[in-house]
Write a structure and sequence with these properties.
Length: 263
């Protein structure tokens, strides 16, 4: 596969890339949300900081919260599947939407809230890499509100063949890429934002401080995954011990139990 570089699918790289390069972020949003770039007038990153002292915390979030022309947009990169993941994303959207109003303020002041979640695992049982959710009347297909949009993009479902006119796919391939061969292929598509993004990734790859932050983040994610696996194993062990106790209560011998459980 050739020389490996850091990948934007790691949340700390994703946030650093887009928070520090709003020109790249503008092109990304234009293509991923199908908004003409000339209609994006202003982007403010509301949470640009990456706190080194928090990188090692397993629950530390590295999402991007944006104010884009009066709309709030939250972007999150997620590499590991979680139970009830859809519910978690819905909670994020609801908090972003509801916290806009102080007591006594009219609902007319509520701004649209958009969530973009990019995942490095299979989330839905269909082949499309993009799923969009809103609030609809399921029988009559009437939209209740245009102030909610939740987008999921699944990296595993991106086609391998690159078509230069499919800019959503190109951006997602860029986020997934981690080798020189992949970056060279993407640079040849002549998408200016992606070309700038690749150069930013190269710069981060060469920066020792950034690589140390990435190492700390990867360790935290690995430790979290290991703890979850240990918890599952402990849960399975407790369940197995409970079953064995019930078998013994029924008068079964250890030999009979072993032959059933471990044969």
């Amino acid at each position: 596969m050739g020389e490996k570089f850091i990948s934007a699918k790691l949340d700390i790289v994703f946030k650093k890339l887009f928070a520090e390069n709003t020109d790249i972020l503008k092109e990304f949003l234009s293509d991923i949300l199908d908004i003409p770039i000339e209609k994006i007038n202003g982007i403010t990153v509301l949470n640009p900081d990456i706190l080194p002292e928090s990188i090692g915390e397993k629950s530390y979030r590295l999402d991007l919260l944006l104010d884009v022309d009066g709309k709030f947009i939250n972007i999150e990169m997620q590499v590991r599947s979680e139970k009830h993941f859809g519910d978690r994303v819905l909670v994020y959207w609801s908090k972003m939407y509801s916290k806009q109003l102080d007591s006594g303020e009219p609902y007319s002041k509520l701004r649209p809230c958009i969530v973009i979640t990019i995942v490095d695992f299979d989330l839905f049982d269909h082949e499309d890499y993009h799923s969009e959710f809103g609030v609809w009347d399921v029988e009559h297909e009437n939209k209740l509100s245009d102030k909610m949009a939740i987008h999921f993009f699944e990296l595993n479902k991106i086609p391998e063949d690159i078509e230069k006119n499919k800019r959503k796919e190109l951006w997602l391939r860029f986020i997934r890429a981690e080798s020189k061969e992949e970056f060279d292929m993407l640079e040849n598509t002549n998408v200016a934002g992606i070309q700038k993004g690749i150069q930013a990734v190269y710069k981060m790859s060469a920066d020792e401080r950034t690589r140390e932050l990435i190492r700390m983040r990867e360790k935290a994610l690995h430790d979290e995954a290991s703890l979850l696996e240990e918890a599952k194993e402990e849960g399975r062990a407790e369940e197995r011990n409970s079953i064995i106790a019930k078998m013994r209560d029924k008068g079964m011998t250890d030999e009979e139990i072993n032959s059933i459980l471990f044969s």
